[in-house]
Structures are given as C-alpha cells and as structure tokens.
Specification:
heterodimer; A: 224 residues; alpha/beta; Spore Coat Polysaccharide Biosynthesis Protein SpsA, Chain A; 9 helices; B: 129 residues; mainly alpha; 2% strand
Chain lengths: 224, 129
C-alpha cells in the first residue's frame, strides 16, 4: 500500500523539518511543494530528502497559493502511481498518526475522499468563526454540507485524485475540492482528527479576513 | 458657443484614438478592442460636439437630463471594461500557474537510495550482465 503525503509549504522553515522527518520515519512517501518561499524552506527540504534518500521536492518559481501548490503536489504524486494521496499542512498543526485514520476508509474501499474534521470547540474564536462562515459558503455555492470544509488533512484514492479538477489557486481550494466530490459523485467521509494549535499556526490559514476574500472570489467566479 | 470642456474632450478623444491605432499597429491591441475603443471615443467626441442632442436620448430612456444619461452610460461602459480586464487577469494568472507547475514537476528533486543508483549505473555500463 503506497501512501503519498503531499505537503504544500510556503515560508515554513520553522516547522517543516520536524513535520517531514516525522512523516518519513512513519514510512510515508512525501511530495513537498515549495510554493515560491522566500525563506530557507527549499534548502531545508532538499537536505532532508538527500539525507533520507526519500521524497520528492517540487519548487514553484513564483508563489501561486495553496490551491496551485496542492495541484502540483497531487500531479507529481500521481506519476508514482500511489494507492492513497494525503494532503498534509506543513505548519505542524496535524498529527501524522491521523494519516492512518483518514486513509483507513480508502484502504477499506468505503470512501474515495476523506477529510479530517477538526473539533471546532477547540478552536480559538476567530478561527471558529472563519471556519463556520466557510462551511456556510461551501453549502451555499456548492450545495454540500460538511462539518469542516477548510481542513488541510485530506485523503484521496488514486481515482479521485485523477478526477478532481482544481482551479482555485488560493485557500478557496478546500471548498472547491468538497464541491468536486459532489460533482464527480465520489464517496465522501469525514473522520475526526486532532488539531495542534500553536502560536505559529495561529497566524496562518482561515481567519475572518481570508474567509471574506474567498467569498468575494466565489461571487466573482459566479458572474464570469 | 463652444465651451472649454468640449474642446478638451474632443482633443482628448482624438489623442486617444491615435494612441489606440498606434498600439494596434505595434501588435499590442487586438482589432476587436481597437474598434471598441474607437467607438467609445467617437461617441465621446460626438456628445461633446452636440451636447444638447443627448436630451433626446435622455427623454427617450426616461433618464431626466442629457448629462445624466451620458454619465450613466459612461459608468456602465467602465464596469464592463473592468469586468473584462478582471477576467483577462484571471486567465493570465491561471496560465502562469500552469507554467510554474510544469516547470516545478519537470525540475523535481527526488531522494533516491544510493544503492539503487550504483546498481543502475553498473547496469548501464555493463548491459550484458
């Protein structure tokens, strides 16, 4: 069973080494996409894959956003013909052990796409609000109700990874993936996961401002 | 009696049309956009020459005064152009992302087991083995 973990990384030099070493030690294959970082993310990752002699590293010459990086990572992983593709945030907010939890429904052929849902009660209020708004937006624009539309921990079987079309380049990608699940009639499951909130990861991801930006974008896309 | 604003608008319109034509000749503007811009500036010039005629249009469309009609028309055209521009930029961003992705995947770094590497090299050197 080949499990490929796609890790999109933008200026994550503080956390990425720990995250990648944990993933490699647990026996997962990794695909890191450096999304045009201006810090040392690229050389840190390059040293790790050289040292461990495992892993794939793709470098975006320009910063293209989360959606662009995920698509690159998934495409690079698909070349290796994996059984499961997992997306995993580089900021250290996920527990690597959860990868097995979210992959299980795919290995057992119960689902094509699994999203790890975070417990909203553990979230700081600004994040909780942002994520609740995004769930609502996902419901309105894609007509699918999920518990956590913005989670960065997802698992796909190969068929789903091939079929899902990602167009969004920024954080809107999370909602888009959920929407694609519905559009392509894929089997979907949400599995509870642990979230590790550190001061560092607090500054990233879906907050209210990012949520509003995504909303404006979605409306513009509708008018196109 | 010609007012100052009429002179300014007519000169501005003529300069803009000449500028558009020169951009078209340099291959920097498509023929469709050239025609659209010439049309827009011609309308502005005509309106400046015969400002009172806009009153007919205004009463015809139910908008009070001629000037109001011109302003509303101008704003609508601006909206349309901004929208077109937004879509164009979006398309360019998308193409840029595809390009960046292609380069990233082509130039990917792969961590390979050292032993496998040596084995492969010797295979190449002694293919009969």
């Amino acid at each position: 069973m080949k499990i490929f973990v796609v890790v999109p990384a933008y200026n994550e030099e503080k956390t990425i080494a720990k995250v990648l070493l944990e993933l490699l030690d647990m026996g997962f294959e990794i695909v890191v996409v450096d999304d045009g970082s201006s810090d040392n993310t690229y050389s840190i990752v390059n040293n790790i894959i050289k040292q461990k002699k495992r892993g794939i590293l793709c470098k975006h010459l320009l910063n293209r956003g989360l959606g662009g990086a995920l698509k690159t990572g998934i495409e690079a992983a698909l070349i290796e013909k994996p059984d499961v593709i997992v997306t995993f945030d580089a900021d250290g907010q996920h527990d690597p052990h959860d990868i097995l939890n979210i992959s299980k429904p795919i290995i057992n052929d119960e689902a094509d796409v699994v999203v790890g849902k975070r417990n909203f009660d553990d979230m700081p209020s600004s994040k909780k609000f942002g994520n609740t708004v995004m769930n609502l937006i996902t419901l309105i624009f894609y007509g699918i109700k999920v518990d956590d539309s913005q989670s960065g921990l997802r698992a796909f079987n190969r068929k789903a990874a091939e079929e899902i079309v990602i167009n969004a380049r920024d954080y809107g990608v999370s909602s888009e993936i959920v929407g694609e699940v519905k559009k392509q009639n894929l089997r979907f499951k949400e599995v509870p996961i642990k979230t590790i909130y550190t001061d560092y990861s607090m500054t990233k991801g879906t907050n209210t401002r990012e949520g509003l930006k995504i909303l404006v974008k979605l409306i513009m896309n509708m008018l196109k | 009696m010609i007012e100052l604003y009429q002179v300014i608008a007519i000169i501005l319109g003529l300069i803009a049309i000449l500028y558009s034509i020169s951009r078209f000749r340099d291959g920097k503007m498509s023929i469709g956009m050239l025609l659209l811009w010439i049309l827009i500036w011609l309308i502005i010039i005509i309106i400046s020459l015969y400002p009172n005629d806009t009153n007919y249009l205004a009463s015809y469309t139910g908008i009070g005064r001629g000037l109001d009609f011109v302003l509303i028309l101008g704003i609508l055209i601006c909206f349309y152009l901004i929208f077109k521009m937004y879509n164009k930029i979006e398309n360019i961003e998308e193409e840029l992302t595809d390009l960046v992705r292609e380069i990233a995947i082509q130039n990917k770094k792969i961590g390979i087991e050292e032993d496998e590497n040596i084995l492969n090299e010797s295979d190449i050197e002694n293919p009969e083995k």
